[in-house]
Write a structure and sequence with these properties.
about 325 residues; mainly alpha; two-stranded parallel sheet; two-stranded antiparallel ribbon; 4 strands; about 45% helix; about 5% strand; globular; disordered C terminus
Length: about 325
């Protein structure tokens, strides 16, 4: 049967059910957004958590807003409030996401995300990078130009440079590599580029794990907000490990270092890296499934054809 001829029954949620899910999501996410907003109001930097709100561009207000995801219809009078939100439309059963909002540009985004995540999931984790990307970002850097200059380097600048020069740097992630200092770039065994991203990414990479959050919110509101929140939660844990293994002294913030400049520290890092690779795999597969469902929607030209009617499939949250 041709994709445009398929008719898939959507999931209809009673108002009591979806309102409870919405409230649970808001409570969960507020535990991250409210401290961030307080720090921002007080002009207080946080070298670990700020990354999740600055490098990643999903605004706190957007993270707080709950969406059921593709193929779910919200019933009840309260659902009609969402008609003022972009992307929603009304049906006889209630309010649901509008297929017309899944534009050609968003389809291309979903295709790229699916290709990247599928290629990453097919590879074995590589666990020998030891978080040296953070060290390479400050290698031979002037003190005033160090990103987290308010925090001292545990080994000082000379000791940090020595670690970079005596370890084998194997960074495969372009969005980490592009922040290396010019002097550190040639020390990396790879030369990752944006064009090679699908060919290079592997599930042991901490940044590839954190980026599941980015790829999930890139498809907002079509991705269930529970999946976005689950991805954020894991990204926060990974980011903590990332910075504990960095050259910065974050003891005042309660972060004990992972001393990757020593054999025991490298062993600790590899074990934690393997655990995160295992834990990110289900999130990656959940997002691939959402992409599959999205890409099964007819393209805008097909959706406009009067001879067929397609209803989006339900996506699990």
């Amino acid at each position: 049967m041709d994709r445009a001829e398929q008719h898939i029954t959507p999931l209809v949620l009673p108002e009591s059910v979806w309102r409870a899910r919405e409230a649970e999501h808001h409570t969960r996410v507020a535990a991250w957004t409210e401290p961030h907003l307080r720090r921002r109001a007080g002009n207080e930097a946080h070298p670990v958590m700020d990354f999740l709100f600055t490098y990643y561009s999903h605004r706190p207000a957007r993270l707080l807003r709950w969406h059921p995801g593709i193929g779910v219809t919200l019933s009840g009078d309260a659902a009609r409030e969402r008609l003022s939100w972009r992307g929603y439309t009304e049906t006889p059963d209630g309010v649901t996401l509008d297929p017309a909002e899944f534009t050609d540009a968003r389809r291309r985004t979903a295709e790229f995300i699916r290709a990247l995540l599928t290629a990453t999931a097919a590879r074995e984790p590589r666990l020998a990078c030891f978080g040296l990307h953070e060290w390479a970002m400050v290698y031979r850097q002037e003190p005033e130009r160090v990103r987290h200059s308010a925090r001292r380097l545990r080994l000082g600048s000379p000791g940090t440079d020595q670690v970079v020069e005596t370890q084998n740097i194997r960074c495969s992630h372009y969005d980490a590599y592009r922040f290396f200092t010019p002097e550190a770039e040639p020390l990396n065994t790879l030369r990752p580029t944006r064009e090679q991203q699908i060919a290079n990414e592997q599930p042991g990479c901490l940044h590839a794990g954190m980026d599941i959050y980015k790829w999930a919110y890139k498809l907002d509101p079509f991705v269930p907000s529970e999946l976005i929140a689950d991805s954020f939660a894991l990204a926060a844990e990974i980011r903590e490990m990332d910075m504990r293994a960095s050259p910065y002294d974050l003891a005042e913030l309660g972060y004990t270092p992972i001393a990757i400049e020593t054999p025991p520290g490298r062993a600790e890092y590899a074990a934690m890296q393997a655990d995160f690779a295992r834990r990110t795999a289900p999130l990656r597969h959940r997002l691939i499934e959402v992409c599959d469902t999205l890409l099964a929607w007819p393209a805008p030209a097909e959706a406009a054809a009067p001879a067929t009617t397609t209803t989006p499939a339900a996506a699990s949250a």
